[in-house]
Structures are given as structure tokens and as C-alpha cells.
Amino acid sequence: MLTIALPKGSLLKDSIKLLQTVGLDFSDFLDSSNRQLxxxxxxxxxxxxxxxxxxxxxxxxxxxxxxxxxxxxxxxxKKPKVAQLADLGFxxxxxxxxxxxxxxxxxxxxLPAHGRVASKFVNCARDYFSDLDLPVEIVAISTSPxxxxxxxxxxxxARLPACLRRSSISCPPVAPSRKMA
Length: 181
Description:
single chain; alpha/beta; two-stranded antiparallel ribbon; 10 strands; 20% helix
């Protein structure tokens, strides 16, 4: 039986709709009275695991699911040893470099070398600033910086195109490495 890791949250509904187009129905996950985190769909061909989006690649990489549906941002950030099979064409967000509205900085390249950058997306931020050849200290935080700031996100922010999020299907690579560090 095929096991599919499905993300809780904003991608769930579209993921279920897409799976319905291939004859797999996990719509029971959308029923607010259903508290199950694992269901077998009506045909018995597959089971779904309802997990946090950040956990989807972990379930796939370590064999608890053969297929997972998750945002590209999660794949880029977690860097799991999985193959990205397809862009599903839904979902989407962007990451931004933001400074105080009163700041004179208008472009990320203007930021001083060795400054601090707070991000939930540590690897994406590190890759982005590395591509700019701008050494910065990345400070990991567990919430969105805009939520942790006292003021709103300023209008002078720049998008990080390297981490644009698209939903994708992932599965283990053809020759998976089970070695754990």
C-alpha cells in the first residue's frame, strides 16, 4: 500500500484535490470532526499521513511514506535526501529581506558585511547571502521575523528569489542514503 505524507495547513486542501484527480480520496482529513492523523482512502490503494509540513520530507526520507507533498521552501530549507518529482502548481509565498522603515538600506547588497540576519529559514538565508558574496551571521528563530517585530514589515524589503515556494511532490532518491550524521 502506498503511504503519502500530506501537510497540515494551507496546502492540504489543494493536495487532496490533486490526489482526487488520480483516484485517491483523502477528503476525510478535511472533516473538522475527524481527528485521525492516518487514514486509508476508500479504494484501499493508499493511506495518508497528516503531518506538519516541516515533517513531510522527514517521513519520506526515512521511509515512513513513499510520497510527500510539501512546499518548495521546506525542501530547500531542510535539504532532505529526496527527489523532487513535480511542481504541483499551487501554493506560493516569498521570503523577504526586511529592515526598519527608517533604514537607508534599499537593497540587500547594501547591508554591511558580518551583520546579523534573523530567519526561520536559516539555510535559504545562508544560500541567498552566499550567492550575494555577503558574509552575514544567521541567527535562527522559530517564528517569522515579521511576527516577532514590534512594528509591521516595512515597505522597503527585497524578495529572496532563491527560496520562492511552490508545492512539490517528493520521494526518496533512486539510491537513498540511510546514513545518519
